[in-house]
Design brief:
By secondary structure, the protein is α+β, with helices and mostly antiparallel strands. It has 20 helices and 24 strands. Strands 2, 3, 5, 6, 7, 8, 9, 10 and 11 form a nine-stranded mixed sheet that branches. Helix 3 runs antiparallel to helix 5, helix 3 packs parallel to helix 6 and helix 12 packs across helix 18. About 0% of the residues have low confidence.
């Protein structure tokens, strides 16, 4: 633990008590979002957040996070240490007050913590309440103190257990199995969060160790570059549009604002926003201020330098955000988050503060870096032209639907039901499979849309080109949602959209192309849980008159093992859906009572975005590296 040079009054009187702790165990989801994997990881996030707050204020330089076993986590910091003197109101140790009282913490007073990641007592006391065991050790004023807890209640008073030269806090906790059905911390998710926090806090070292692995897994994160380094990390593997990463820093009315961005040759925009190092996935006022600032500043620069003539219309937000990877991070006193899980920032004062700082620093960046400025503005103008062309093409698609009296594509075999919640759309590969599936389906609620060949790779095309594809236009009209800014999930005609392709390499490619299309242009359908992938069987195994189907290699071996006890078996490897008659297709792949569907989910949007860039983008080398890395783990590859 490092020796501190800064001094600040931080004693028991700085701990403010608002209310009791009991509600947390009764309604845990209100405080941590859920009792599933996300809620479990939220315990770790809240515990680390307290140490991060010390680092933000300049009192902590190192944090260590350790997974001790399958259910125990330890977080140590070299901050000032939680006070242990007697609290004037509760008449208990300040440590016990903080750990066992909801809404008790130094952050309510506004003197000790000027900007923090939340309400000190809400997060850590919720962790304590939802842990079957917790032990906190505090080093301060030359002594070490400790206290243990069980489900939010202290097991004994705070004890002085020795001397120490450093200062800091160590929190060990074990989530309660009565609350969490499965206690398993995902290595990838944990590492991603810690790396992100290190980028957001320049000069902070975060050490992670997973002792459940043999040998133990170690990671150390330390970044002097801060947000520009983070943007460089987010854009690794893609072509940058300009060499210099924009970085702006400033303070307005007590709010510290940092922002950074870079443009790439991609078509998508990726933005992350943070308030006091808390990730706000739903954005908020700080992100709104960032967007407003860059839109106005780029338009002003383009007018001033005659990239836009007097008769030209302004670039809009969509034009400017195409290909942008940006991060905005603010430090603000008393952040107002929507919900305890802090998904969105609501402070009204954050918008003008961010807008002013970003506008001023970006204007300076554009003047000092004319080559970067030209590259960015030219990309934005190109995006504007593409948007106008896409709008014209999109209107043609929608107009076609209207002129046809909302007529559906001729090759669509629609279902009789008009209730989206019970209707299914099977998107199938080829006319032969379309014919089999039409015969196999239940016409009451199952619709069939056959695709001719492989659709356009939308990862390499803008919307105007995409809408020239007959297959994609047919799909858009069949879905009923429109596309781009006119997309309306409420108009979706089917609440189960099922991708059904052959179980071979061509079928896998078609599925990947369709998944790319839905991810890029119909993401709300995925987020609503309406997209599925059908699982046709790989094998037909017959012994005498008995026929069974295997969907995996393991199932095949199990079936063969059972048949060998009788008369042996013959095996047919299905290469395509067309090899099955309608009865087989219904029983194995389309009958809701028997079929297996894989629901498509997005757990990590940025990681999903990167995988699509690698597999479906223009760059060959990242795809080659990906194939070389995973080649040995491929199964069922048809050559």
């Amino acid at each position: 633990m490092a020796k501190k040079t800064k001094k600040s009054e931080y004693t028991a009187k700085d701990i403010y008590v608002l209310e009791g702790l009991e509600p947390v165990r009764k309604r845990p989801a209100m405080y941590i979002g859920s009792t599933g994997p996300e809620g479990l990881h939220h315990l770790l996030i809240e515990t680390v957040a307290n140490a991060i707050d010390e680092a933000i204020m300049g009192y902590c330089t190192e944090i260590k996070v350790a997974i001790l076993n399958e259910s125990r986590i330890q977080v140590e910091d070299n901050g000032r240490g939680i006070p242990v003197d007697i609290h004037p109101r509760t008449k208990k140790s300040a440590l016990e007050t903080v750990m066992t009282t909801l809404h008790a913490g130094a952050k309510f007073g506004g003197k000790v913590y000027v900007s923090t990641g939340g309400l000190h007592g809400v997060g850590i006391s919720a962790v304590c309440a939802l842990s079957t065991y917790m032990r906190v050790e505090v080093c301060r004023d030359g002594f070490k103190y400790a206290q243990e807890y069980a489900r939010g209640k202290p097991k004994a008073n705070v004890k002085k257990i020795g001397k120490c030269r450093q200062s800091g806090t160590s929190v060990l906790f074990e989530p309660d199995p009565e609350i969490f059905k499965e206690i398993k911390f995902e290595l990838k998710k944990t590492i991603s969060h810690l790396r992100q926090q290190a980028y957001l806090t320049k000069g902070l070292k975060i050490i992670f160790v997973d002792q459940t692995k043999k040998p133990a897994v170690f990671y150390v994160f330390y970044f002097e570059g801060g947000l520009p380094s983070y943007v460089r990390h987010l854009t690794r593997g893609v072509n940058p549009r300009h060499p210099n990463i924009f970085y702006g820093f400033g303070e307005r009315q007590g709010t510290i604002v940092e922002s950074a961005f870079r443009y790439t040759d991609e078509y998508e925009c990726y933005e992350e926003s943070f308030a006091n190092n808390v990730y706000t996935p739903d954005g908020g006022t700080h992100l709104t201020g960032f967007r407003t600032a860059i839109t106005k500043t780029f338009n002003d620069y383009a007018r001033k330098n005659e990239f836009l003539k007097e008769a030209d219309e302004n670039l809009n937000g969509e034009d400017i955000r195409e290909g942008l990877t940006g991060v905005v991070s603010i430090k603000i006193k008393e952040p107002q988050f929507e919900g305890q899980t802090k998904a969105k920032l609501g402070n009204s004062e954050a918008k003008p503060a961010v807008e002013q700082v970003v506008s001023e620093t970006l204007a300076d960046f554009l003047e000092r870096n004319p080559q970067d400025s030209r590259a960015i503005i030219e990309k934005c103008i190109l995006s504007q032209k593409a948007r106008k062309a896409a709008k014209a093409a999109k209107e043609t698609v929608l107009k076609k639907g209207i002129l046809d009296g909302l007529a559906l594509p001729g090759k669509l075999a629609d279902c009789s039901s008009r209730k989206p919640e019970e209707s299914e759309l099977y998107i199938v590969e080829g006319e032969s499979a379309g014919g089999s599936s039409r015969q196999a389906r239940d016409r009451r609620f199952q619709a069939i849309l056959p695709l001719r060949g492989k659709i356009l790779n939308v990862e390499r095309a803008r919307l105007d080109k995409i809408l020239t594809s007959k297959e994609i236009k047919s799909l858009i009209i069949a879905l009923g949602t429109a596309v781009a800014e006119d997309f309306n999930l409420d108009k979706l005609r089917y609440h189960r959209i099922i991708l059904m392709a052959d179980a071979d390499s061509d079928g896998n490619h078609i599925r990947t192309l369709l998944l790319t299309l839905f991810y890029r242009y119909f993401k709300p359908i995925i987020e609503a849980g309406f997209l599925y992938v059908a699982q046709p069987p790989l094998y037909k195994i017959q012994s005498g008159k008995e026929i069974k189907h295997a969907y995996t290699e393991e199932q095949k071996l199990k079936i063969l093992s059972s048949f060998k006890k009788t008369f042996g078996a013959s095996i047919q490897r299905y290469k395509g859906l067309g090899e099955m008659n309608s009865e087989e297709l219904w029983e194995t792949t389309m009958n809701p009572e028997n079929r297996t569907l894989l629901q498509v989910k997005i757990e990590d949007a940025k990681e999903a975005d990167k995988i699509f860039d690698i597999l479906m983008g223009d760059e060959v080398m990242p795809r080659k590296k990906f194939i070389q890395t995973w080649a040995k783990k491929v199964k069922n590859l048809d050559i």
